[in-house]
Amino acid sequence: MLSKRETNATPRRLTAIAVTFALVLLLALLFVHGMLPPSGKKLGPLALGFFVTELPSYALFYCGGIVAAFELWRGQTQGAFHRFLVWGFVLYSASQVMGALWCYYGWGNTFRWSARHMASASIWLAYAAYLHLRFVPWWTARRRAFFAVSAACLTFGLTTATYLLASLAKWVVG
Question: Would you list the domain boundaries of the chain?
Answer without folding.
Answer: 42-173
